Amino acid sequence: VEWSLKRFNDGKNFTLAVDTDVLQFNQPVPRLHAIHATESSDWVLIFDPLDRDDIGNLTCRLTDTNSREIYLTRFLNVISEPLVLESSTKDIEVNEGDSVTLVCNAQGYPAPTIEWQKADAQPLSSGHIRQMGSQLHLHQVTRRESGIYKCLASNLVGFGSEWTLKLSVRFRPYVYCERDVGQATDFLVDAYMECYVYGYPPPKISWRHERSAGLSNIWNSQDYLIEATIPEMSICTDCILSRLTIIHVKQAHLGNYYINATAPDFPSEFGRVTLYQTSDCQQFVTHRNNKGCKRIHSQKSSSNMIFSRSIFLSFVVFIQLF
């Protein structure tokens, strides 16, 4: 007599025992026992203990005296809380406009009920917070469908393990710049401009300044400081806040600034911010060496001031002598 098991969770076939010889599940402690009494026609296979992975088709097969093969198959149900299987959908990337199906496979008896929801509790594409079923169909996805998805399996025994996956939606970058910026040029003061850059994968960002000779690339230097931060999800998702600080604004710094966002397989996207001159100093305090609205005095002006002060002191001394 041969005992075999085709497991339900992974589809693997195991020959468990032949006659009274057990071939599987002997480590670390034997949990299978094949029993046959000499004068009995009964063949017995005992699972002790029974494992949740033992669920599947259990077959007893033998050959009779006429060399005919006889077998009997029964489905072995193991009452257990649900377990989400590794065959479920893992992290996945799709293009905006594609359709995708997320699959959550769960094992357990009684058969588990499966529920889908987003980790941030935002509505699914159907408009509902939760959706039942082992498959979640998303049609013509947009960037709003990206995020963490959870499936939870439950039955009468209890709640099983939770399965999470990340759905990333690739979309072309775009740029939003808040406003143009004004600043006086004769003060030791900075100006900064900010742009939100959206896109997935995260775009590569660069800044340029428009001059009479054309566009010149901007790097971190004594004149410029480029910074990038990831805003809180309540502000935006799949976005970067890029800030360009113009240090100690001078006349040569005025004009148009362009931010360029590039990502593989997508066209580049541009944004523009103009730095214009104002008569009054604006209090942009962004650079650590920023002194505030302090007027820049030339060496000639300082010399004239010293000369005037010397004349004033001489005049006072002259009056005191008389």
UniProtKB/TrEMBL annotation:
Where in this chain does the entry annotate a coiled-coil region? none
GO cellular component terms, alphabetically, are: neuron projection; plasma membrane
| Record's keyword annotation contains Disulfide bond | yes
Q: Any stretches that span the bilayer, and where are they? A: none
| Chief location of this protein within or outside the cell | membrane
What is the originating organism of this protein?
Answer: Rotaria magnacalcarata
Q: What is this protein called?
A: Ig-like domain-containing protein
Gene3D superfamilies given for it? Immunoglobulins (2.60.40.10)
State the PROSITE patterns in the record: IG_LIKE
Keyword annotations for this protein, in alphabetical order, are:
Cell membrane, Disulfide bond, Glycoprotein, Immunoglobulin domain, Membrane, Repeat, Signal
Under SMART domains, the record lists:
IG, IGc2
This protein's record includes keyword Repressor: no
Q: Where is the Ig-like domain?
A: 82-168
- Please name one Pfam family that this protein belongs to: Ig_3
Entry's localization field: Cell membrane
